[in-house]
Amino acid sequence: MHIQVDHLSFAYPGSIHALQEVSCDIRSGERVALTGHNGSGKSTLVKHLNGLLRPSAGTVWLDGKDSATAEVGQLAAQVALLFQNPDDQICKRTVWDEVAFGPRNLGYPEARIQSLVEKALTLFELASFKKKNPHDFGYSERKRIAMASIVAMDTPALVFDEPTAGLDYHEITLFINTLAELQGEGKTVIVITHDMDFVAENISRVISLTEGRKMFDGNVRELFNWSELMTGCGLLQPQVVQLGNACGLGSVALTPGECVDELERTPERKLI
Amino acid sequence: MGTWRAFWRILLPLLLFMIPIHAFLYPDNQTVLLHCYGLTIYREGLLYALNTLLQLAAVLAPSLLFVFTTHPADLITAISHSAQSPTLAYVLGSPLLMMSAMRERVATIQAAQRARGLKTGGTVIHRFFSLAPLVVPLVVGALVEIEQRAIALEVRGFKAATPKTSLRKLADPTWQRVSRWLMGAVAAALVLFRLFR
Amino acid sequence: MAQLETDALTYHYPGSRQPSLAEVSVRISPGEFVAVIGANNSGKSTLCYALAGVVPHLYQGKMEGRVLIDGTDTGESTVAEIARQVGLVLQVPSSQMSGVRYTVFEEVAFGLENQGVARKEMTRRVEKVLAVMGLEKYAACSPYHLSGGEQQRLALATVLAVDPAILVLDEPTTFLDPQGARLTFDILRRLQLQGKTVVIAEQKLDLIAEYADRVLAFDRGRLVLDGPPQEVLTSPLIKSIKLDWTRYTQVAELARLKGCWPMERPLAASLSETIDGLLQGRKVHAHPG
Predict the structure, then answer these.
(1) Which CATH superfamily is domain A1-78+155-229 in?
(2) Of the partner residues B109, B117, B144, the one whose CB lies closest to the CB of residue A73
(3) Per-residue pLDDT at B42 exceeds 90
(4) C119-132 and C104-114 are packed helices; what angle lies between their axes, rounded to 10 degrees?
(5) Which chains touch C (3 or more CB pairs under 8 A)?
(6) How far apart are CA A227 and CA A229, in angstroms?
(7) pTM of the model
(8) Does residue B173 sit at the C interface (CB-CB below 8 Å)?
(9) C-alpha–C-alpha distance, residues C244 and C246, integer Å
(10) CA of B55, closest CA in chain A: separation in Å?
(11) Does domain C1-85+164-238 have CATH number 3.40.50.300?
C-alpha cells in the first residue's frame, strides 16, 4: 500500500498542535521506522492512517484514495495498528479467538480466517497455546498474542507501536522474522520505536518527528550521524555505531560484520 | 460562595418543577388553598413537595459543602488516621486520582478495538455485543494494575504495624471536634425521636 | 556474612507445576552491583520478589529453601519490615504510584509516613531524595502528570526515602527510552558508590556489561552462570539460554576470526573493553611482531 501524507496538521480539541504540516511518501512494500520523543506526534500521526483521528488540515492518501472518505471500519482492513499495551486489546477467552478477532470483524470467510490465524500463531510460536486463555500468560506472551492478532488481519499496511519493548532476544527474533515475511508479501510496514539496535539491523529509512514537525526523513546512516537530533528524541546510537565512532571508523557501520570490515579498511593512522 | 451557587443551581429547577406539579396534581389532594387561572392549588400537594425538597436540601447542602471545602488529600489523610484499616482508607481515597487515568484507558481501548475492525454504534443489540471487547480489557487491565500496585504499596510499608505519621497537618480545632460530636448526638436523638414518637 | 543470600531457593506460584525458581543458591555482598539476566519467564522477576519478601508473603505458593537478609530469614519478617532493608522497584512506572497522594513530594513521603517517621525528619529526607533524583522541580506536580521516565525516577525516589541498604529492581527500564535507561543505570551506580547494594533484573546486556560487577544468568528457574560480566556475557552458554551476545562481543569475535583481535585477549562484553581490544589488535595486525 502506497501511503502519502500531505501537509497533515492536527490539533487536539482545546489545545496544542500535535502535528504541523507533516508530509511524507511511503512506497508500497517499504519498511519505515518512526521516531521522536514522547509527545512528538508519532501516535497522532499513525492514528490518521486508519481514521481514528481525522486531519484538521491536509490529507492522507492510501493507494491514491483520500482516507477521509472511508470509515474506520473500512480503513482497519487497509491499515492494522498495534497499540503499545497488549492489555488494551485482549478480550477473548482463548488465544485462537483473540487472534481471530480482527479477521472476524473484517468479515473474512471462515477458511481464510483459519489459515491466517494458524500462520500468525506459528510466526509468534503460539500454536501450542491456541486453546489457552490469554490472561494466563505473562506480559511478553500477551504482547506476542496482540502482535499475532494484528498480523492475522492480512492488511496491506501495518503499524507497530514499540513492538520490541518487554520482549527478550528470542521474541525480538520472532518479530524480525515476521517482518521479513511481511516484506515478502509486499506489505508496507511502519514501526514506531526507539530501539536503535533493532533499527540499525532491520530498517533502512527513518522518519523523525519533533514537536509535531518532521525533522528528518532519510537513511538510517544519516540519522546516526546527527547526534543533536538523536539526543533530542531521547535516542542513543546503536552499539555498533558507538563503537565505530569511538574507533574513528571512516563510515557508519550498522552491523558487527560491517564494523569489522570497515575497521580493516580504515588506515591505522585514522584510528583514535 | 461556590457551594451556594451549586446548591441553588441544582435545587431551583427542581423547586420550580416540583411545586406546581404536586400542588396541582398530587393524588391525595383534598384541601383547596387557592384558585388561579382555572388551576387549583391544594394544601396536601404543596406540603408534600416542600417536604421532599427540604429533605433533598438537607442532604444536598452538606454534601456540596463537603466537596467544595475538603481537599481530597486531606480527606484521605483524615480517613487514614481515623480508620482502623489502612485498606479502607485506600479503597475510599484511591478512585479519586485514578478516575482520569481510567478515562484515558477507556479511550485507548476503544481506539485499539476499532483499529481491529470492531464496529461501535449501530443497533442496540449490536452495541450490546460490542461491549465485551471494551469492558474486558478495562477490567482485566485494572486487575493487573491493582496487583502490581498492591505489591508496590506493601513494599512501601502500607500494612506496617507501626503507627503512621502524616506530612499534611490536618487542623482539627476543639470547636470542630465538639461540633462533630454534637451533630452526631443530635442526629441520633432525632432518629430515636422519630422511632419512638 | 553475606548481606543477601538465597539457600537452595525453590518456588512454585500457586497452582503451577513448573517451579519458577529451582534450587537457587546465591550470596551477595554489601555494595555489589549484581545484574540478573535471562529470557522472559526464566525466573528473574521471581528472584526479585523473593529478595523483597513479596514471595512468599504476597503470592503464597510453595517455597522451599530460604532467603536471608543480614542473616534473618524473610519468612520470619513481614513485608513492611523487609522494606526497611530492601527497596523494590517494579517494571511499570505508573503502577507504582500510590494513587492516594496528590503531589510528588507527598508521594515520596508516603513510605516514610507508613514507617512512622516524624514530620520534620520526613520533610528533610524527601527534599534530599528529590535532589538526588533530580525531581525537585516536580515537587508540587501530580505524579500522574509525569512522563514514564520521570515516574520511574519517582518510584525509585519513594523507595530511597526509606533509605534501604539494598535496592532490587525488576526490569525498570523496559518502558523507558534509551536515554532514560542509561540515566537509570547512572543513578544506580551513584547509589552503589554511596554504599548501596544493587540487584537489577534486565534485558539490556550492553548496559549491564558497562555497569555491573557481577552477572547471574537464569534459564527456566535455574542459575546457570555466575560471574563478572566479561566472563558471563561472552560465554557460549548465553546463546543456549535464548539470549545473545552484545554487539560488542559479536564484533570482537568477528575481529578475532579475521585476525584483528589479540589472540590471547578474551572476548569483550562492554564498549570500552571492545575498543581497547580492537585498537590493540589493529596495532598488532598493522605491525606484527
Answers:
(1) P-loop containing nucleotide triphosphate hydrolases (3.40.50.300)
(2) B117
(3) no
(4) 130
(5) A, B
(6) 5
(7) 0.88
(8) no
(9) 6
(10) 40
(11) yes
